[in-house]
Amino acid sequence: MFAIRAAHAFDGNRFLPGGATVVVAGDRIVDVDTDRVDLPADVDVAEYDGTVLPGLIDCHTHLVADCTVGGLERTAAMTDGEIDAIIIASLRAHAAAGATTVRDLGDIRYRTLGFRDAPGLPRVVASGPPVTTPGGHCHFLGGAVGGVLDADLRSAVRERAERGVDVIKVMASGGFATPGSDQLGAQFTAAELTVLVEEAHRVGLPLVAHAHSLVAMENAVAAGADGIEHFTGLSSAHGSRIDDDLLDEVARRGVYVDLTMGNDRSFHALMPTPPPPLAELMARFGVSSFDEFYAARIAELARLREHAVRVITGVDSGMAPPKRHGNVWRTVGEMVEGGYSTADALAAATSASAQACGLAGETGRLAPGHAADVLVVDGDVSRDTSTLGSPRAILVRGIPVQRETSG
Ligand SMILES: [Zn+2]
């Protein structure tokens, strides 16, 4: 048994005035005290003047992708051993940045499933290869359905369930990592998505839809998808535009929305021209600079907040240099820029994301009985979320993370 005492604390839902002592036994939190209690003499206490909080959750990663443009596609030509090496490096980068759970929404050959319970590495919630259309978005991951008959769609879900996935991911629209895919239209009709959702729910799995286009978002909502990724609102007529009615319906149905932000903006400041996928996305938005694109996404966050949509935090990490594994802490600052309180933004990155991942009661909170997924960062996060980028200590299911670099 050992304990972490910090001057400031966030428990997954709220800040605890005066900080807290988190007592850990094995892989569990056994106590969270806000008073300075006397612990047994044999309990080691590590004291910090920073903030203790639950480990963060990246709800959209591609562990097999190495943060280069085109890296996801290149996995198709790699051996399993090469892919596994990338997965391990990705998980280490997440852990070193305080992400103790990641949801992988697109791998190849189900490689990530073998790393779900690796000691000292983040917990992995895995989708396997996304369901897509022949030649459609990320078809190179091997998840295309042969046809769009009910039986084909149902067997695509059942195959993944038999492999043991935790979530079904479907590419409801095209995407920017797949040139030539239909980014402004739909890869599946609402009726087809409904079949996928029904079958996923029948086998006890949630379904999340990748949707850049407005029509794919509408189809996913109508089909009863549990979550929508990107939520970009693109159409050929309007660039990005999402009506109030759709936001209200998404909120009413309790759909989890992940804008996949967490961008390292310093990277963009240094880059004279954005890489082709981002340039294309910005062109669809009708903006010419990353700052304008970023401002539009922050404005969208503000609207999600006004409409009480359940927002969770994901990065699409691994897909490009600004979307590194371990960037999810940056989404907290972006939400604050969008008008969220720091507590609400942190709750999105911890307890709400845990709930979206089916892990409520397991992680995302500093509470007795929960896994000892614990992050300690410099300073008082309630005053400055950038301190999330300065981790002091990290526990993944009770195991301290060894960070390769200091400071
Ligand atoms: Zn993705």
General description of the model:
It is a single chain. With 407 residues, the chain is an alpha/beta fold. It has 2 domains: 2-54 and 363-405, Roll (Urease, subunit C, domain 1), CATH 2.30.40; 56-356, Metal-dependent hydrolases (TIM Barrel, Alpha-Beta Barrel). It is 31% helix and 22% strand. It contains 11 helices and 17 strands. Strands 1, 2, 3, 4, 5, 15, 16 and 17 form an 8-stranded mixed β-sheet that branches. α3 runs parallel beside α4 (190-202), α4 packs across α5 and α10 (329-337) packs across α11 (342-356). The two termini are 27 Å apart. Residues 60, 62, 105-106, 316 line the site of zinc ion (ZN).
Topology of this protein?
Blueprint: E1 2-10, E2 15-16, E3 20-25, E4 28-33, E5 44-54, E6 56-61, H1 71-74, H2 80-96, E7 99-104, E8 123-126, H3 150-163, E9 168-171, H4 190-202, E10 207-213, H5 214-223, E11 227-235, E12 239-240, H6 244-253, E13 256-258, H7 265-270, H8 276-285, H9 290-306, E14 310-311, H10 329-337, H11 342-356, E15 374-377, E16 391-396, E17 399-400
Parallel strand pairs: 1-5, 6-7, 7-8, 9-10, 10-11, 11-13, 13-14
Antiparallel strand pairs: 1-2, 1-3, 3-4, 5-15, 11-12, 15-16, 16-17
Helix pairs in contact: 3-4, 4-5, 10-11
The structure holds zinc ion.
